[in-house]
Specification:
Number of strands: 2
Shape: globular
Radius of gyration: 19 Å
Strand order of the largest sheet: 1-2
Largest sheet: 2 strands, antiparallel
Order of helices and strands: HHHEHHEHHHH
Mean pLDDT: 79
Low-confidence stretches: 197-201
Structural class: mainly alpha
Helix content: 40-55%
Number of helices: 9
Distance between the termini: 43 Å
Length: 201
């Protein structure tokens, strides 16, 4: 599924799945499942949904030890491991790592912690939700935005995902996405909910 969005790094899907999957204690991750509701919530890591849901989704992906607190090193690991790889270009890879370190440092400064201090989930979400500048830095650090061409930081809808699917190489996907776009547009202007659109000239 993620590959259709242009996210071709295998570790990305594994991390997102592990962050949102459901499994009973003691059961192997191979027996885990992701309910539909959790799958919808997982899309928020791709910049979809309100600020609060985006923050919660990214936190879940970062918090691999499930401690409900996040360290600077955990966030840095998440950002560096999930950015698109610059294949066979060590110079660009090095430049990208420096860029990740800078962006994570700038974003983490909003929480007033230093060293190995960690940020609790509630504080993480509240700062992102209530501070527009912190949210902008949060978006800038989000590694998944770099998989999407023409990322619009002001658009929290699923449109960016539909665009990514449309520009995929699958012809059937093109047709399905165009159909979804037309239906979405029709619903948005069908004010009387009769499922009929009439143009009066």
């Amino acid at each position: 599924m993620l590959s259709r969005f242009g996210i071709d790094q295998p570790g990305v899907g594994v991390r997102i799945f592990n962050g949102f999957c459901k499994r009973r204690p003691g059961v192997s991750t191979y027996m885990a499942i992701m309910p539909f509701r959790a799958a919808v919530a997982a899309l928020c890591v791709l910049g979809v949904g309100c600020k609060e849901k985006q923050a919660e989704a990214v936190f879940k992906c970062c918090d691999q030890d499930k401690s409900l607190s996040l360290s600077r090193s955990e966030l840095l690991k998440f950002v560096t491991e999930n950015r698109p790889a610059q294949v066979h270009d060590s110079r660009r890879n090095r430049k990208q790592r420096v860029d990740c370190f800078r962006k994570v440092g700038k974003f983490f400064d909003w929480f007033g912690v230093s060293g190995r201090e960690e940020v609790a989930l509630q504080n993480f979400v509240e700062v992102i939700k209530s501070n527009p500048e912190a949210f902008a830095d949060f978006q800038d650090a989000n590694p998944y935005r770099y998989y999407f061409e023409g990322w619009d930081p002001t658009d929290f809808s699923a449109q960016k995902l539909l665009n990514a699917l449309y520009f995929s190489s699958d012809g059937n996907e093109h047709e399905a996405v165009v159909k979804d776009m037309v239906e979405t547009l029709a619903h948005s202007i069908d004010e009387d909910t009769w499922d009929i659109i009439i143009k009066i000239t």
